[in-house]
Amino acid sequence: MVHKKISAILLLVTLSIITACSKDSADSSKEAVTVRQEQEQVSSQLDQADPTNTTSTGTEQAVSAEEKIAGLGFSDVSKLDLDGYYCENIAAINANEVIAEISSDGAEQTKLVRINLKTGEKAIFQDTNGDEKISYYSLGQDDSGVVEWRTITNSANQSIYHTYKLDSHQQAVRVDDTQESPDGKWLADPNNEEKDEGIWGAERSSGVRKQWTTGINDDDPLWLPDSSGFIFLHDTGDNLGDGAGPRYELAKYDLGKHKVTILPYASGFWGNIEWLVPGESVLAYNGFDDGVGMKIVNLDTDKEYQIVDTSDFDYLWSSLNSVEHQLLVSDQGSFTIYGSSGEPLSVVPWPTGFDMYTNKHLSDPPTQTDEPVRQYYYTGGEQGGRFGPSSMRYSPDGKQLAYLLGAMGESSDDKVEGTRIALANHDGSETRLLTNDYVRISNIHWTPDGQSILALFTLEEDRKQYYIGTINL
């Protein structure tokens, strides 16, 4: 279940590749080639459009890179030596070390390496094991610091996925979809290798397995805080068609009574679920096909609130604050915080006035046709690529929000080359910029102690050379 949560977050986080995060993933090698071809095409178009681009000699290139890096405003920058591999993502495991997912051209080989940012030392953390390969672009780290990734084993009949996470001893442990109860006594497994129907449980002390639910595709067990049972998606036996899968109902299983109770909410496509407030409200990522959807279900009031349901997701981003138990939705010029009952707790406008690109865009004049006029919030988005906030990351204590402000994705129409790192209060208010210029930042992460922010980035003149910038707060 956890890997699906990360997929759902990525779906909302990287909306331009929304279909890549579904359960029926496309071939990752083709995806890797496509992404890199697009990057190379964009770089080529930019070079052709800018005759002043001076990268003719190695000396000029090196000096230019050093000067630009020095001017970005990072507290420290580590240049990564990856032996020609591409760096897809990083996870911060402590203040000085990261795990990086690196892959060869075409993603034929993908591995995890552990890198010390102070010494530059690196070591393979996990590599291909027989037929089991690390799944491309699967390394993820949520705002609570949990690090997970997936592997894939291809056979003649099917592809088998496994999920691993980093335990408290920084060792790789295979968890798949197994969910441990808060008291540590039980494991709930919705997708066991025996392919048994329903959700099965295993007692930690004895290892004895028991069948708890009977729906063929019952899924997503969320343990109640007191370990008395769990909320889950109950398979009704109907199929929604069009690739949507089973028709689900929200249900509750009581361990003491060995009883399933169907809860009074609409059946249909529920997507993936997770706790907004444990034991009180559930957040469902129920967007399907070409749409993005989010629904909050309050278990105390038996009410459900569809807070997002749109196919216009060019500027949409969300992040769950697991400390404050609130949901942040960024879209159409504002940050909105939602509480456990689906109510907006605050609405904060996107920040403006940092530079010529973040100035507020003036309203477009009325059009003489029926064609809709695309509205831009920032001047950086006028007659160019998308420009706005993205990649929201909450600090470990939930009090601060780090995000990227600038180009969303990559386009030859971008007015700026990348993004700047912004820091705000948890609701998006009082934003300040931490970096001095725009640069191609792939992702950002807080260190577990909450004292620093790490950013994986490249420079426009050499997209195959990766750096990790550190901002000490």
Describe, in plain words, how this protein is organized in 3D.
With 473 residues, the chain is mainly β. It has one domain (2-472): Methanol Dehydrogenase, Chain A (8 Propeller). Helix content is 10%, strand content 41%. The protein contains 3 helices and 33 strands. The strands form 8 sheets. Strands 6, 7, 8, 9 and 10 form a 5-stranded antiparallel sheet that branches. Strand 16 and strand 17 form a beta hairpin. The chain is globular, with a radius of gyration of 23 Å.
**Mass-distribution shape:** globular
Radius of gyration: 23 Å
Number of helices: 3
Count of the domains: 1
Give me the secondary-structure topology.
Layout: H1 2-13, H2 28-49, H3 58-72, E1 76-79, E2 86-92, E3 97-103, E4 110-116, E5 122-126, E6 132-134, E7 140-141, E8 147-154, E9 159-166, E10 172-174, E11 179-180, E12 186-189, E13 200-203, E14 209-211, E15 219-223, E16 229-239, E17 246-254, E18 259-262, E19 272-277, E20 281-285, E21 292-298, E22 303-310, E23 317-321, E24 326-331, E25 334-338, E26 344-349, E27 387-394, E28 400-407, E29 419-425, E30 432-433, E31 440-446, E32 452-459, E33 462-472
